[in-house]
Amino acid sequence: MRKRSYEELCQQRLTPQELRHAPRHPLIIVLDNVRSLYNVGSIFRTADAVRAQELILCGFTPTPPREEIAKTALGATETVPWRFIRSAAEAVGELRARGVRVFAVELATESRPYDSLQPEEFPAAFVFGNELVGIQPEVLALCDAALEIPMYGAKHSLNVAVAAGIVLFEAVKVWRRAHHLVAHNGDSHRRPR
User: Fold this and answer.
1) Which DSSP string corresponds to 1-48?
2) Is domain 22-178 given the CATH code 3.40.1280.10 in the classification?
3) Which of 1, 13, 101, 176 is 20 to 30 A from residue 185's alpha carbon, by CA?
């Protein structure tokens, strides 16, 4: 075993031009008042990694261009479709009106395990909340369901960017398996070079 070279990695990845025409996974990410610019940048990078359909920034969530977002996004602000909507409640309402199933990623009384997603629940949106207070109660009430990541230690939550990575990669896994797409780094939509 050896570490792959940068050149080898580049041969396996879509170029930004190819990405513009590649089909995206039916995942939408909604950030409800996420405070940290670094968390926003990290979530941009994860959104690129899972080839999310869209990232919606809401409330006081900071938006590009910002140096702190760029530092952790590493160019993903240019490869991920994103937009700003004034409130997460408005974003959730719009998504549900389009037939998108909306999941709050939150510790809620009726939350279910994050790995319980089913193929028929796509297209899906995932709402991630503020680092201190989570998702606003009025936004949570509008969601179709809540997903929870189990915690086995003394702490009851994860960093929002870490939680996003866990949930989004699980969602991609469920969707790709249901559509018989390759599960490793390769992609059935990738053109040979």
Assistant:
1) --PPPHHHHHHHSPPHHHHHHSPPEEEEEEEES---HHHHHHHHHHHH
2) yes
3) 101
